[in-house]
Specification:
Number of strands of chain B: 22
Strand content of chain B: 15-25%
Strand content of chain A: over 45%
Number of domains of chain A: 1
Keywords (chain B): ATP-binding, Chemotaxis, Kinase, Nucleotide-binding, Phosphoprotein, Transferase, Two-component regulatory system
Oligomer: heterodimer
CATH architecture of chain A: Beta Barrel
CATH architecture of the largest domain in chain B: 2-Layer Sandwich
CATH topology of chain A: OB fold (Dihydrolipoamide Acetyltransferase, E2P)
CATH topology of the largest domain in chain B: Heat Shock Protein 90
Largest sheet of chain B: 6 strands, mixed
Shape of chain A: globular
Order of helices and strands of chain A: EEEEEHEEEEEEH
CATH superfamily of chain A: CheA-289, Domain 4
Shape of chain B: flat
Number of helices of chain B: 24
Enzyme class (chain B): transferase
Largest sheet of chain A: 6 strands, mixed
Helix content of chain A: under 10%
Structural class of chain A: mainly beta
Catalytic activity (chain B): ATP + protein L-histidine = ADP + protein N-phospho-L-histidine
Radius of gyration of chain A: 15 Å
Number of domains of chain B: 5
Pfam family, one (chain B): H-kinase_dim
GO molecular function, one term (chain B): phosphorelay sensor kinase activity
Radius of gyration of chain B: 34 Å
Chain lengths: 148, 689
């Protein structure tokens, strides 16, 4: 994999949670699916909503709102599942909506602003300001780490 | 690059097969040391292996095979006699070859120091084992001369017919040539190149003869070179140029065929003919042998034709096929429900027909993953042979049911446990010949390896007529190691004592031998088998023998389950652990120390409420006068799983929950139901502590 520093820009998938926009590098995204039936898996973390049948592969689903400690949302038409792969782990993130793919210039990525007391802080690898949009880049390793 | 990988894979697979054939046949040869037809077959396998290795550029491999081939050739020409010591060395070479192939398979270059074994082979080949009488020596010398001649490039042998043809064509003004064509080392499609060379030649003349024969050339049964005798009006130079135009050819040598070459060759021919005559006489003396031979050839031929009708498919592709197929199944489910709603007769009919075809298709897809257990079993004869020689024991290995089919994934896993159990039987089970004699048993011990199907299971048994398990010794050891206490030891049944040897850190071997007792105990075997969803048990009687029985699911990917419903959630319970289902009245549930139990056929059975265990969210309290209970078993313990309702029995495809969700309590996996939803499979072992 090419390190971020060597590239001019990175392509990211932008999605929404509440009123904020988040970004995941497109290289980690396997696909974006509409909401489908999720089978609950008992005795797992609360943010693990269960598993879905993704074209024959049983894929776990994480609700990102719950993972970040945000209030739950109503299921609307715009809700999407972003299938993300990191190393040998494949999971789906439930997000409010996902409809943008953009290039972020590497130079525009800044370390996360130091705000104390926000749970999602731990999952953020940086922020990028594109025009008047503020994109929050996710630290996938930490989002997927169950022990936190 | 990818092409090369593909050829490499093919090379590795085929080399393994040839090596396997070599070891099988060598074992057979040891039993019938005078049967030259077996030697011929081994020779053929070795020769093909050599050719393949040379083509792929594995010099060491080709070289060692060549040396082995020389020894086989000497046996075949009855210059040396077959005995166990000689076979030891040939087996050793096969081991080295195997190690090389393994190295190549794991990405190495197949290099290995084989100087020692090469020396040994050379010594045998030089006839060190036979008394040095002059005529034999001379024969060897003559043979060497012939070989030198061959290496100098003289292969073609002309019979009288050929000579007549050559003479006549010369009279008609044709020139006769011998053409030696060398293909490039990396030539991938040798047969195709040969074909192209022949095409070129046939345009400007006629091929009289070739070495190897045309059939062998077509089957790529040659290394890099082949020779043809050719008549043409063209000059040698022209022919050389034309043939060289074919790509992937390294060298073309065109030599005019002189009378001298023809005659000299034919003299050799006469010598071989004489030898054949002798062979014929010999076989006449042994009529039974002659009878056997054609029969053998026949089976060989049928084997080969069967071989050519199969293709190799990687297990990954089969998995992809399986996944695609499951998607189809899901769509079928949707189509069926649409057809039911629409009630259009033609649509319904089509969907029904499609369902039937898909049922057949499913069977085919599933059976494609099944391979005979032979692939695991056939490495054992050689292993038992070398073990018994190492330990100075006489052991006969019987294999029954090698054709029994098992899922590929199980096959891959079962090899090591079996190796362990067989080593155990040979080392600890079978006694040394004098001990056996003193016990009034035949000197030769028997180890039987048996496989058979029964229901949805495959059973593999390793039985020996050896010493059996000494219960006092086992108990003493178990108490020593703190596995059981002295008090509890008294109450153990024989069966329980036998099973103690599966406990971790247990080994009855008094001294650590090379064969077993290296710290890896039978407990590893047990864990492996359990991880495959199987079980192992042992029966033993002192001085009579022991029998290890392994029970394995036919396939890891498909299991029969009972689908049950709790609220709106569907769970699958493996049928293998279900005893029966029953519906009980609420009033039949009893309380015992905060544990709800029922009386099931006179036995007190604890109840497990799955809705509580799995924290199923209930919209309203489930209240019914009757409760559905699935009676399950783990070992000889029973429990009743309380569910809302039964859906029914079904065959399901096992799926993993993936790498993210590991160690989920009491869930062993998942499956996809007809409607496309995921259902979880309950792990009974985890539910019953």
């Amino acid at each position: 994999m090419v390190t971020v520093a060597e590239q001019e820009s990175i392509k990211v998938i932008v999605f929404k949670l509440m009123d904020k926009e988040y970004a995941i590098p497109v290289s980690h995204v396997q696909g974006i699916e509409k909401m489908m039936h999720i089978t609950r898996v008992p005795r797992t973390e609360k943010f693990v909503k269960g598993v879905i049948n993704l074209r024959g592969v049983v894929t776990p689903i994480i609700n990102l709102r719950e993972r970040f400690g945000l209030p739950p949302a109503e299921n609307t038409e715009s809700v999407r599942i972003i299938i993300v792969q990191l190393d040998d782990v494949e999971v789906g993130f439930v997000v409010d909506s996902a409809n943008d793919v953009i290039d972020i210039p590497v130079k525009s990525i800044e370390p996360q602003p130091e705000v104390v007391g926000v749970k999602e802080e731990a999952f953020i690898s940086g922020v990028s300001k594109i025009g008047n949009r503020l994109l929050i880049l996710l630290h996938l390793d930490k989002v997927l780490n169950l022990s936190e | 690059m990818e092409m090369n990988q593909q050829y490499l894979d093919m090379f590795i697979e085929e080399s393994k097969e040839h090596l396997q054939a070599c070891s099988d046949l060598l074992l057979e040869l040891e039993k019938n040391p005078n049967d030259i037809s077996i030697v011929n077959e081994i020779f053929r396998s070795a020769h093909t292996l050599k050719g393949m290795a040379a083509t792929m550029g594995f010099e060491d491999l080709a070289d060692l095979t060549h040396k082995m081939e020389n020894v086989l050739d000497a046996i075949r020409n009855e210059k040396i006699k077959v005995d166990s010591n000689l076979l030891d060395i040939v087996f050793e070479s096969v081991d080295h070859l195997e190690a090389m192939i393994t190295d190549i398979a794991s990405g190495g270059n197949g290099k290995r120091d084989v100087s020692e074994i090469v020396e040994k082979l050379k010594a045998i080949e030089a006839g060190k084992q036979i008394p040095s009488s002059t005529p034999v020596q001379q024969e060897i010398a003559a043979d060497v001369a012939v070989e030198e001649e061959i290496s100098a490039g003289r292969y073609l042998i002309y019979d009288e017919y050929d000579i007549t043809v050559l003479q006549q064509s010369k009279e008609q003004g044709f020139n006769a040539y011998e053409i030696t064509v060398s293909l490039r080392q990396d030539c991938l499609l040798k047969a195709a190149r040969v074909y192209m060379v022949f095409q070129v030649l046939e345009k400007c003349g006629e091929v009289i003869k070739s070495f190897p024969t045309v059939e062998n050339l077509e089957e790529e049964q040659f290394d890099q070179n082949f020779q043809v005798a050719f008549i043409s009006k063209d000059s040698a130079e022209e022919i050389q140029k034309k043939v060289s135009k074919v790509s992937e050819i390294e060298n073309v040598v065109v030599v005019p065929l002189t009378d001298e070459m023809v005659r000299k060759a034919s003299k050799e021919e006469i010598a071989t003919k004489e030898r054949q005559q002798q062979d014929l006489e010999k076989s006449n003396q042994a009529p039974t042998k002659q009878k056997e031979e054609p029969a053998k050839k026949e089976t060989n031929a049928s084997k080969q034709s069967a071989h050519s009708k199969t293709i190799r498919v990687s297990i990954e592709r089969l998995d992809i096929l399986m996944n695609l197929f499951e998607e189809l199944v899901i769509d079928r489910g949707r189509l069926q429900s649409i057809a039911n709603d629409v009630k259009h007769s033609e649509l319904t009919e089509t969907v029904e027909r499609m369902s039937r075809t898909m049922g057949d298709l499913q069977n085919i897809v599933l059976t494609m993953r099944m391979i005979p257990i032979e692939t695991v079993f056939n490495r054992f004869p050689k292993m038992v042979r070398s073990l018994s020689r190492e330990l100075n024991k006489k052991i006969n290995l019987e294999i029954i049911g090698a054709e029994t089919e098992l899922d590929r994934t199980v096959i891959d896993e079962i090899g090591d446990p079996l190796v362990h159990l067989i080593r155990n039987s040979v080392d600890h089970g079978i006694e040394s010949p004098d001990v056996r004699k003193s016990k009034g048993k035949p000197e030769e011990g028997t180890v039987t390896l048996r496989a058979y199907h029964s229901g949805n299971y495959v059973f593999i048994e390793i039985e020996d007529d050896g010493a059996g398990i000494n219960k006092d010794k086992v108990l003493k050891k178990a108490i020593e190691r703190g596995i059981v206490t002295k008090e509890s030891a008294l109450s153990l049944t024989d069966k329980q004592i036998n099973e103690l040897i599966f406990e971790s850190g247990f080994s009855t071997a008094e001294k650590i031998t090379d064969v077993s007792g290296r710290g890896v105990g039978l407990d590893v075997v047990k864990t492996t088998i359990q991880s495959l969803g199987g079980s192992i048990s042992i029966e033993s009687q002192e001085d009579v023998g022991s029998k290890f029985s392994i029970q394995l699911p036919l396939t890891l990917s498909i299991i029969s389950v009972m689908l049950v419903e709790i609220e709106k959630e569907i769970y699958a319970i493996p049928l293998s652990s279900i005893i029966e289902t029953s519906i009980i009245k609420k009033s039949e549930i009893l309380n015992a120390h905060n544990q709800k139990v029922i009386d099931f056929r006179g036995k007190v059975v604890p109840l497990i409420f799955l809705d509580e265990v799995f924290e199923v969210p209930r919209s309203e309290a489930f209240d019914d006068e009757y409760q559905s209970v699935v009676i399950v078993r783990k070992g000889d313990k029973l429990a009743g799983l309380v569910v809302d309702s039964f859906i029914g029995q079904q065959e399901i495809v096992l799926k993993s929950l993936g790498n993210y969700l590991k160690n989920i309590f009491a869930i062993s996996g998942a499956t996809i139901l007809g409607n496309g939803q995921v259902a979880l499979i309950i792990d009974i072992n985890a539910l019953m502590k």
